[in-house]
Amino acid sequence: MAQYEELQIDKGSDVTIQLELEDLNGTAKNLTNHVVSGKIKKTYNSSDSDATTFTTEIVAPATGGTVNLSLTNTQTQALKAGRHVYDVEISFVDSNSQTVIERVLEGNLTVTPSVT
C-alpha cells in the first residue's frame, strides 16, 4: 500500500521533492533497473491530457533508494491554485518478463498562489 502524504508547492516556483524509499525491512529500496513515474491531476477523474508529469530521477547509487521528483516553474505556473491529487509509481520487469508496478506515494497536493 502506498504511503499517503500531503504536499504543498508554490505556483510559479521550481520544485524538487526527495523521496527516501525503504523496503519492508526498513532498509533502502534497491531501485536498480526500476523506472519512476508520477503525475498531478486536479481530480482523480481528470483526463491524462490535463495531467502534469513530474520529472523523475533515481539518485546514484540506485541501491540507496533515493528518488527526486521535479517540476519547473513553468509547470507550477500552469497549475491552478488549490487542491490537486498526485501519485508516484515505480516499475520494473521481473524474471518472467512481466512488468510489476508499485504505487509508493499518493496524496493531495496544494498549489498556493503567487503575488509576484
Overview of the molecule:
With 116 residues, this protein is mainly β. The protein has one domain: Sandwich (Immunoglobulin-like), CATH 2.60.40. It is 5% helix and 49% strand. It contains one helix and nine strands, in the order βββββββαββ. It has one helix at residues 73-78, and strands at 3-4, 7-10, 15-20, 35-41, 52-53, 55-58, 66-71, 82-93, 99-112. The strands form two sheets. Strands 1, 2, 4, 5, 8 and 9 form a six-stranded mixed β-sheet that branches. Strands 3-7-6 form a three-stranded antiparallel β-sheet. The protein is globular, with a radius of gyration of 15 Å. The N and C termini lie far apart (39 Å). The model has no long low-confidence stretch (mean pLDDT 96).
CATH class: Mainly Beta
Structural class: mainly beta
Strand content: over 45%
Number of domains: 1
Q: Radius of gyration in whole Å, from Cα?
A: 15 Å
Question: What is the CATH H-level superfamily?
Answer: Immunoglobulins
Under CATH, the topology can be stated as: Immunoglobulin-like
- Provide a count of the helices: 1
The shape, in one word, is globular
Q: Report the helical percentage.
A: under 10%
CATH architectural label: Sandwich
Largest sheet: 6 strands, mixed
Mean pLDDT metric: 96
